[in-house]
Amino acid sequence: MTYFIAQILPYITVTVFIIGVIYRLWRWAASRIVHNITLSPFPQTKTEVAAIYLREIVLFNNVFKFDRPLWVGAWPMHIALLNVIGGHVVGFYFLGKQFVYLGASEALSTYLSNLLGTVFGIILLAGLLYLLYRRIAIDKVRQVSNPSDYLMLLLLISIVSLGNFMRLVPEYGMHYEPVREYFTTLILFQPAAIPEGNPFFILHLLLAQILIMILPFSKLMHLFGMFGMRWIENRIYKEPAPGLPNVDVAAARARGTGLPSAGSTDVA
Amino acid sequence: MPVKATAEDMRRIHIEPVPDDQKVEKAIQYLDEMRKKFRSFVLAMESCVKCGLCAENCHTYLGTRDPNNIPTNRAELIRKIYRRYFTLEGRWFGKLVGAEDLNLDIIEQWYSYFYQCNECRRCAHVCPFGIDTCEVTMIGRQILHWLGIVPKLHADVGAAMERTGNHTGLTKPAIVDTLEFLSEEIKDEFGVDVEFPVDKEGADIMYVPSSADFLLNPYTLMGAGMFFTYIGANWTIPSTITEAGNFGLLFDQQHTMRHNFTRLLHAAQKLGVKKIVWGECGHGWRAWKMYLPGMADLPIRWPITHIHDEVAYYIRTNQLKLDPNKIGRPVTLHDPCNYVRACGMAETLRTVIRACVADFREMYPNKENNFCCGGGSAILFDDPEMYQLRIKFSQKKAEQVRATGVGRDGNGILCAPCSICKAQLYPMVEEHQLGVEVKGLIDLVGMALVWK
Hints:
Number of helices of chain A: 11
Strand order of the largest sheet of chain B: 2-1-3-4
CATH architecture of chain A: Up-down Bundle
Helix content of chain B: 40-55%
Oligomer: heterodimer
Largest sheet of chain B: 4 strands, parallel
Largest interface: A-B, 79 and 88 residues
Number of strands of chain A: 0
Radius of gyration of chain B: 22 Å
Structural class of chain B: mainly alpha
CATH class of the largest domain in chain B: Alpha Beta
Distance between the termini of chain B: 53 Å
Number of helices of chain B: 23
């Protein structure tokens, strides 16, 4: 069982993920932008367009303005998620010593890596639990939910809980080195057995792979979709210049155009 | 749901209604064509995360509390079918991922809820991803049109568009007659001589008014006539395309919409004008400004601007003399959805209204965040069921107007610079007892002009 999850499934997971994402993105690209459906705000320069993108992606601007209670959960959750995923990549590769490049000592770097991982893991879990609460308890959110929306949240909560558990309970913690070694063997197509005796790690690995496999077939494609939609709507639109041809207002007023004493409509 | 067009009504607009036993199969076929054609539609289908933000930002949900009026749920009526037939997860997991087989009941639901959407795009404006439920509604209505399911109102207007080039079926004699009458009205009320040249070849400017102005909004036409006369313009109104709107946008964005697009290009060429100036119509301005360039079958050799943009230009360059104290009443501005969200005109409207009105009060929220009047996309049905719904759809708007206080003494003005907004708000301000009169923006310009 462990052999399958650790040494065979990863190849299936990555294949399904890559082919799935390419397939979905290809379907989007094959369809067309037929009409000009420019939407407010109306950026006049490329810089303004970039600002719209950045405000939305980095600060969740629309969520902040139009549904503050949602923002309170969604934004910290996504920031924590990005840091946790980034921390997985960077942490495993540099064995927790990545902050050396910012001037920290090795010990400080390892300490920071552990601390940030723990903190963001907790924020991420709190955010997810809050979002699940909203989906159960708030009418409008419940009314828009399908079973898969709840299941996705539960899957994410499970993965993060397992990760947090390994972080917070020392006897089930995982160190960077053995995991980095394991991933290296995977990449070299010589998959080796993972460290024994940690059922939480196996489960975390399994659930994470399930998440990666279903991503292209779920609403998690919004991570690409949000760019696709804004690309259509947030475009520069330039008006034709105002000002009417052959019109001299001052002359018309001097002539008294329209006034009964001066005669009726005059043509310039 | 609105009264449906009969089979005869549909045949008049060149659609053979699909028999019931073929509707499901045809609907799936048309849906397949739409999803392969429109990227905006596919993204709305696949990128929504069901966060629920759109719910309380849509006036139809706020007014009716019907869960299917939540924008993402309105889209879900099609999304659940899309998932079932066009995605792996839908085919495999069915109800778990919210996928359903299509049947005639669901098609009826489509008719009901796509004609409860005002296509105002506030949901797109507030969505974190910009998912445009208006696109879904438009495609839903297009599929229904091809199936032969269209409200009688829209189908009749489609027939009028083909017959006369305008929505209300005005013929040239009627147009000329009404304009002569309005010239007299202007003389009586304002003491100035304004002539409305119709089909004048060699005019520099072609002004395209909303045909509803001839029947319901005389002050808008009078205001435009006064503006063009004041600046000494060599202008004309075309009789073959006396329509600032385009109902094709609202139910058939191919044959019907294209027909009037072609009429405009023919008229501009025949009359030899140099610039086209558009009248007060919200959905029409969106169609003509944003959709025409992609659908024109002939080169567009004339710049097209909106009359508000032109008036604002002449105000900014101090060429118009306006007295803001002439209209001695408090005024608030309703930002029409298509003007502010689809066409970027929020500041233009304010340049004009501030020059015309001394006591101008903003409503809140305003500009791009404004709520729809509830009549958008011609939800203007007057059968009892839909009329009650219109009252609910305009609930949010009524709250906004009341909060400004302009109607407190019963003499307020609600400035609504869009034909459909006017048609909706004329009865709705009475139903909600707001104490205001509905006027267009060019109406106010005409009333505030200083001629000497």
